[in-house]
Structure prediction request, 337 residues.
Amino acid sequence: MLIEEHKSLKNYNTFGIDCKARYFVSVTTINELNEVLKNKIHPTVFVLGGGSNMLLTHDIDALVIHINLKGIQLISEDKETVTLNVMAGENWHNFVQYCIKNNYGGIENLSLIPGNVGTSPIQNIGAYGVELKDVFKSCSVISISNLTTRNFSKKECQFGYRDSIFKKEEKGKYIITDVTFKLTKNHHKTTIAYGAIKEILSNLSIKNPSLKDISEAVISIRQSKLPNPKTLGNSGSFFKNPIVDLDTFKNFIKQNPEAPYYKISEKEYKIPAGWLIEKSGFKGKRFGDAGVHKKQALVLVNYGNATGNEIVALSKNIQEKVKQLFHISIETEVTII
Ligand code: EPU
Prediction:
């Protein structure tokens, strides 16, 4: 196992920010992970997965452990379902493709989401009407402080909209080593209600879409709206869609009757942050190398050499303007480091 010093993390975060790790090690087995945790070369540990949901604003004075654990194992199956255990370092989209190839249903709508399997539970990734929690069974973790292992059930993870216990009271305490999923083998419960998916399938005259048809529709929607991190640095949605109470919603919709929204309950409404940001005039705007994507205002981008602080400054300007115009606060979805 090679421990590198002052290593640039530019290729390890999808925003492409050039910050350095004091120490860096990539672990490929649980034994290696145990070994680096046991003989810590630095008192602080920083866990790095796919680097797809973070914005680095400074060098990391810590031992950065890149979780590169690989493997997909079939745990059990019956006529209708299959249970798979997937190591944390598997690329999320590759796992989705593996499932589609094997006709395992449940995550086709989550095609092309950047990042790794091990970080997917942390923010309960979601897209086009499906969330990770719909197929999640449990995950195994190792404690950073005392190396004990334990399992978190779905209930214990306390999943919410882009949220879990790993962002709240258990934040920073554990490394997720593998995730167990329950998927369908037959009678797939497909979710195609999302407008653009329906439209693509109907244009192709597909009435009973296969998992592959749905995945391909999702890929084409994402490719038309969301920048590829390999060519334009970004972390997907930079902000969460705000959830507002009934009074705030009534005032907002009275002023902006044309705005899109989703009713969550009698008391709560979700308003697309992308719409608020676009109406605040930021869509497609560029400030140095930091910018707002021209096709989806929820996504901030790095045109090349933006620093994390430049992106944070832009995000603060956006938050202030949205608050001033709509009296609604938007929170970041990406973890700022
Ligand atoms: N909208 C605008 N302008 C924009 C962007 C969006 O007016 O620049 C409007 C759209 O017209 C639409 C509404 O906002 O009426 C919703 O837009 P979209 O369907 O693109 O979805 P979103 O709410 O902006 C969320 C997720 C995405 C996920 C999509 C599809 C969050 C924070 N984001 O975006 O997730 O792919 O729904 O399910 O919930 C991610 O987390 O990285 C991500 C990309």
